[in-house]
Amino acid sequence: MATLRQRKHRPAKPLAVMLPTAEGLPAEALALLSSPAAPVVLVDKTRIDGLCDDIAPGLAEAGVMLASNPLQHLVLQALARPVVMTSGNLSGRPPALTNERALADLAGIADGFLLHNRDIVQRMDDSVVRQSGEMLRRSRGYVPDALPLPPGFHDLPPLLCLGADMKNTFCLVRGGEAVLSQHFGDLGDEGVEAQWREALRLMQEIYAFTPQGIVADAHPGYRSAKWAASMLLPTSGCCITTPTPPPAWRSTAGRWRVGTSSPWCWTASAWGGRRAVGRRMPAGELPPVRASGGPAGGGAPRRRSGGVSAVAQPAGPLPGLCAGLAKLS
């Protein structure tokens, strides 16, 4: 484990474990692991026999998975023991999609390579689901299945929703359904934007999708927003800090829970923050604060906690929010 973490420059992020059997795991986890989607399932670490502490340091849960393709079944049958799984990429780059890229990028990480003459057309990370069924990353096995939208969305024209730059997914909306893309991660990482653009093209081709409008994050520095501006289509900037939470905040699971690390206000400034809980209830907001850490603060909200702790308590039912945010530092 120490060697793998050193080679991948991944000192603390959790890794997944592929188990030869699901013996001893809760029934809820077994049902998810055995489903056609075969996601990574987060389970209590105490339910996994012989788990190394370095798999998910400092966490109560660890990600487990079962073999889901013939090659994985052959490997697990031969080894008859758990195998640590990690993506084939350099730190800060997307997974390698070609033999040539894998050999070039991973020569200092992998001791051996098993190559194939079939190309990888689309990157598809593993989906990650909690034992309870809560979806944390919707990707392989679930994409590109369409999700039904609640009443009020059926009359919308076809919309291409691009998402933000961090933890990106995009979405095709039409006919009361939303087709979400796979997880892409941060568009600012080397090589990710190129994969994102190709997936945009391919997904629209597969669904014969012709958008009549584009929805993009209002942040002018985002790559997704710049791409939207280059298209000859009506574009709406989505700002989650509007006085009334927009209907699009509604999750497909029927819950409302939204947060952001770098909101961009209609006044063209990075502005406070807001969270909606329950059923379309504004739960309060923070006044503008100094952006400690500059642009780096967008990816690490704790950098801004110093400014947050110095402002007055926010209005609404969040009297302890400032103090709570300050503790993050």
UniProtKB/TrEMBL annotation:
Keyword Transferase: yes
Enzyme class: transferase
Keywords for this protein: Transferase
Region feature Disordered, mapped onto this chain: 279-319
Keyword Lipoprotein: no
Pfam family, one: Sua5_yciO_yrdC
GO biological process, one term: protein maturation
The EC number(s) this enzyme carries: 2.1.3.-
UniProt cross-references to PANTHER family, sorted A to Z: CARBAMOYLTRANSFERASE (PTHR42959), CARBAMOYLTRANSFERASE HYPF (PTHR42959:SF1)
Protein name per the record: Carbamoyltransferase hypF
Source species of the chain: Raoultella terrigena (Klebsiella terrigena)
Organism lineage: Bacteria, Pseudomonadati, Pseudomonadota, Gammaproteobacteria, Enterobacterales
